[in-house]
Write a structure and sequence with these properties.
By secondary structure, this protein is mainly α. The protein has two domains: 35 residues, no CATH class; 37 residues. The longest helix has 31 residues. The protein is flat, with a radius of gyration of 24 Å.
Amino acid sequence: MRPSDPWTSADYWFADFIEHLEDSRPRLLKLQRERVEIPEAVEAARDYEHETEQLRRVIVVERERWFAEQGKTA
């Protein structure tokens, strides 16, 4: 990657740095050694929280749509 304008050189440098870092063998080995297993209970709780938040948002949208159809405001 080479910049076309001098002011973009930092962006190109950072992109090159990230590309090199992602392909770096020492980094990959370090990530494998430091990998932390998330307990199933914690993962299940996170999934449940995520799903309930998504359902809450759907309900809010449907409620607003219903109010709009009725000609009312929430």
